[in-house]
Amino acid sequence: MAKLDLRKELKAFYSPSAKKVEVVDVPRFQFAMIDGQIEPGKMPGTSPGFAEAMQALYGVSYTLKFMVKQRKNDPVDYPVMALEGLWWVEGKDFVFGQYDCWAYSVMILQPELVSAEMFAEALNQLRKKKGDQPGFARLRLEAFHEGPSVQIMHIGPYSAEQATIEKMDAFARENGYQLHGKHHEIYLGNPLRAQPEKLKTILRHPVKK
């Protein structure tokens, strides 16, 4: 059985330095994606809609993994990649900490061998196994090209990200860039298992000259 080590192949984008901000040109990748908005008075960790989105996203990603691994012709084993989140506020500046106005796209990178037909079949299998949950209708397979971006590994609790974001902003301005687009987080740690001070989160933001 062939093995596809996406984490190793994409190390430049999924294992950045925690000591310095760097500029990367993120190529086109395809993702399983789902959109939503944090409800008033809620945070990502307490939002029912966000929990529903996560269940649907992980469900389709693991279903696809096992479909590819168990197929008769050309089976491939690959890891399910880390959860990622794009965050923004409609019509306003993104302010870290004001969670109940945040809109989001949460997503998991899928290998290029996953086709639209395979994605549709994975959704069919999920519905047969779990029932027709509302989150399944919101899922999509979509290409996303982020392009030039600044990124750094943030180590510590999510609540302490503001200082790292300010560091990214300062680096961008000092090097002739301007932040634009959506704030991007890639979650390498499990907040339910890891101690907050040891959580690893890649922070990324698109830039333009």
Polypeptide structure, described:
By secondary structure, this protein is of the alpha+beta class. The chain has one domain (12-208): Regulatory factor, effector binding domain (Multidrug-efflux Transporter 1 Regulator Bmrr, Chain A). The protein contains 6 helices and 9 strands; from the N terminus they run βααβαβββααβαβββ. The strands form 2 sheets. Strands 2-5-4-8-9-6 form a 6-stranded antiparallel β-barrel.
Characteristics:
Multidrug-efflux Transporter 1 Regulator Bmrr, Chain A; alpha+beta; 209 residues; 6 helices
Summarize the biggest pleated sheet: 6 strands, antiparallel, barrel
CATH class: Alpha Beta
Radius of gyration: 18 Å
Poorly predicted runs of 5 or more residues: none
Helical coverage, percent range: 25-40%
Which structural class is indicated by helix and strand composition? alpha+beta
Number of helical elements = 6
How many beta-strand elements?
9
User: What is the count of distinct domains?
Assistant: 1
How do the strands line up in the largest sheet? 2-5-4-8-9-6
Strand content: 25-35%
Second rung of CATH, namely the architecture: Alpha-Beta Barrel
